[in-house]
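Dear Dr. H.,

I hope your travels went smoothly. While you were away I took the liberty of generating a structure for the chain from your last submission, since the lab meeting agenda had it listed for discussion. I wanted you to have the full record in hand beforehand rather than looking at slides cold. The sequence, exactly as received, is reproduced here:
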Amino acid sequence: MSDAHQEHHSPIRTPKQLIAAVAGFFLVVVIGIILLVSYVTTSKLTGAGTESQSAEAIDARVRPVADVGYTLKDASAPKVLAAGDAVFTANCAACHATGAAGAPKLGDAGAWGPRIAQGYDTLLKHAIEGIRAMPAKGGNPDLDNVEVARAVVYMANQGGAKFKEPAAPAAVTAAAAPAAAAPAAPAAVPEAAAAAVAAAPAAAAKPAGDAGKNLYTATCAVCHGAGIAGAPKFGDKAAWAPRIKQGAPVLYEHAIKGFMGKAGMMPPKGGATASDEDVKAAVDYMAAAAK
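The corresponding predicted structure, in token form, is as follows:
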């Protein structure tokens, strides 16, 4: 039995076939390149950064911040009066949610009953002007009387009252006031009054130390005298030490602007209408007593 020998023959056997094969290969490559270039130049490709140089993209990048949804507060616009529950949360909850300093707790009908019996007008008067440990307007002099009234109604109604929440007063414009009703300006200041003002001695101003002590006695002692609502007691070195360590600027800022701590809230200026300098003097007075 003889071995069968099968030879594998190439399809290119002559020089002409080789030339034709090479030419065909290059033709296919050239056609592929042409098609690829045509696709790239005529088709719109998308991807990260594709539109970065478009007119719309450039306009969005250079557009002012005020044009993309941010609203600047107009200081001359009418004040938006907060609802009673919002005023309570921001200003009254520090005492009325916990019963600190004898404040009637929200929803405690037994504590609110005698107060409701005094009438709405009395409750509002006490809330606006302050009474005992209750600072005027809950320690926030920026509150409008209507906002205070709404907070009073909110708390009283939670304790069993049925007061009606006051509506915002109608806006009064300057143009509504008749020009004729404006009092005429005095022609001149009387010479005697001018002389009295000029002669007032500068030394008549109260010393800073006295101002701090007086403000503490009139306002700050309500909480700092007994340690109410987390306030550091007057003369308590342990309670004042970490606060004094923060530095006078921090103490001044908390006293003037108010501060919400873990144990309670410090109302702005303790609820007083004193000047910033007097508040700083009171802070110095209390800090000095704890050193």
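Two observations you may find useful: The chain is about 50% helix and 0% strand. Residues 206-289 form a domain with the Cytochrome Bc1 Complex; Chain D, domain 2 fold (CATH 1.10.760.10).

With kind regards,
E. W.
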